Amino acid sequence: MMKINKAYVVFLLSVLLTVLFSGCNSDPAPTKVAAAVPTSAPAQRAAEADQGFTTTAPIFTENEVEVVTQREGVVLSVSAELGQRVHKGQVLAILDDRQMTADYQSALAKSRSLAADSKNWEAELKVAQADEQRAQAMYQAQLLTKEQLDHARYKSIASQYEVERQKEDQITAERTAEGLSVELQKAKVIAPFDGIVARRYVRGGQHVIASDRLFWIVGDTPLRVRFMVPEARMASVKPGGHVQLASIYEPEQKFDGKIVAVSPAVDPGTASVEVIAELAVKNSPLKSGMTAQVTLPKN
């Protein structure tokens, strides 16, 4: 048999292994990928502006206030109920004002008394001035001494001061009466504007103190919403523009509205601008305090 050279066999095996490993490690040809074309910022903002915009906002009215009492007392009567329409100046409730009325009448009587005293002292002043003039003539005729003339003069001066004091006391009494009159008016709780009683917190016989809530009055002014619009839409949002409002629970039932105010500044924290819109439809189911869905149309 023919002897196989071991060195030759080792050489063949090494070549075979080299071929096998080079085949396994070979990478596929690289595939070229097209680079994405960047979109410019103005183009992106224009694309966002072309889309519709929807957000939510609370419904409010400008004339909406909680009526509070301005003084302490016991409620004698309540003349306004929930849902009742009231008018500006209408009496809603009355507090017990008997003591205040008595104090006011007493102040008026004191003012009248001081006014009478003032007139009396004015008359006394005229008498004292006449006595001084007569004493001056008698002194020139050497019928009175210098001391007697001075006495008449000082009496006239004292009467003048007394008249001034009485007038100041009268003014003080009149101001006191005016203050009591104001407090007396506070016993009547009146409606600040035309509207509807949305809530009544008080009942007859209840003791209240200053700043206690009595009624919640919602005015007849149009309903409004205040919401934020992205900066990209700012150029297309202007006063008089059209919006649509709907309840968040019935978004398919929309009502027309118009933009009444747009803030001239952008909030840097949210990159948005504040907008106020007003409901253009009367007698809609939307009410103050509800959350509305606000939709801006597409450009």
How many E-type strands? 14
**Category from helices, strands and their pairing:** alpha+beta
Order of strands across the main sheet: 1-10-13-12-11-14
The first-to-last residue Cα distance is 97 Å
Question: Low-confidence parts lasting 5 or more residues at pLDDT below 50?
Answer: 26-41
Oligomer: single chain
Task: Outline the biggest β-sheet.
Answer: 6 strands, antiparallel, barrel
Task: Describe the protein in words.
- The protein has 299 residues and is α+β, with helices and mostly antiparallel strands.
- Among the domains are: 52-63 and 221-296, Efflux pump adaptor protein, beta barrel domain (Elongation Factor Tu (Ef-tu), domain 3); 98-186.
- 37% of the residues lie in helices and 28% in strands.
- It has four helices and 14 strands.
- It has helices at 6-24, 41-49, 98-140, 146-185; strands at 53-60, 64-68, 73-78, 85-86, 91-95, 188-190, 195-200, 207-208, 213-219, 224-230, 242-247, 250-262, 272-279, 291-296.
- It has a six-stranded antiparallel barrel with strand order 1-10-13-12-11-14. A four-stranded antiparallel sheet has the order 2-9-7-4, with no helix packed on it.
- A hairpin with a 2-residue loop joins strand 11 and strand 12.
- The longest helix has 43 residues, at 98-140.
- The chain is elongated.
- The protein starts with 5 loop residues before the first helix and ends with a strand.
- The model is unreliable at 26-41 (pLDDT under 50).
